[in-house]
Amino acid sequence: MQPESADDPSQKKSKRRRTASDSSSLRRITLGQPEHMYILVQLVFEPPKLLTEAFYKAAVHSAVQESFGVIGSGMALDVVSFRQERGECCLRVPANHYVSLRAALTACNSSDGVACRFSILRASPFLLALSNDTQIYP
User: Fold this and answer.
1) What are 95-133's pLDDT values in tens digits?
2) What's in the GO CC field (predicted)?
3) Reduced to 3 states, what is the DSSP secondary structure of residue 135?
4) Are 59 and 82 in contact (CB under 8 A)?
5) In 3D, which of 93, 62, 60, 50 has the Cα closest to residue 75?
6) Is residue 84 part of a domain?
């Protein structure tokens, strides 16, 4: 058995540069306008109140209706997740309604005659981006 020489082509790694003809194996992915926005919202009542998901969604709809009327409250709104112990809710809204929803939540100061406020903790077109909480971990 003879030792293989360093010139053996099967042992050499390819050091060939990519050319224009190799571009068929490469793909460019560009992101356009997002279809939806995800918003992490906290609802705080004075005095504190135990919330349910149905009450939370009704409070959001009433805030939008108060700001933009019946037509404005017809926007599609989904509750992605709900944390009862923290009073937090992750909402999904069409991207073209995001600004309206954020304005309505910011302007809201009561729900069912009880003083409250919506705090928008984070917003992103990517749901995964809401999971990172930089305020907890320094």
Assistant:
1) 999 999 999 999 999 888 889 999 999 999 998 888 876
2) multimeric ribonuclease P complex; nucleolus
3) coil
4) no
5) 93
6) yes
How many domains does the chain divide into? 1
Residue 91 identity: L
Per the domain annotation, does 21 fall within a domain?
no
- Residue 35 three-state SS: coil
Give average pLDDT by consecutive 10-residue segment, the chain, 138 residues.
55 57 70 90 87 91 92 88 92 94 94 90 90 62
Tell me the two tokens of residue 45.
């009542």
Q: Do 77 and 102 form a contact (C-beta atoms < 8 A)?
A: no
Sign of the dihedral defined by the CA atoms of residues 129, 130, 132, 133, in that order: positive
Residue type for position 16 = R
What phi and psi, each to the nearest 5 degrees, are found at residue 90? -100, 120
CATH number assigned to the domain comprising residue 125: 3.30.70.3250
Gap between the Cα atoms of 60 and 84, Å rounded: 15
In a domain, 28, yes or no: no
- 107 is in which domain, residue-wise? 36-131
What's the CA gap between 90 and 99, in Å, rounded?
16
Q: What tokens appear for 58 in the block?
A: 């009704």
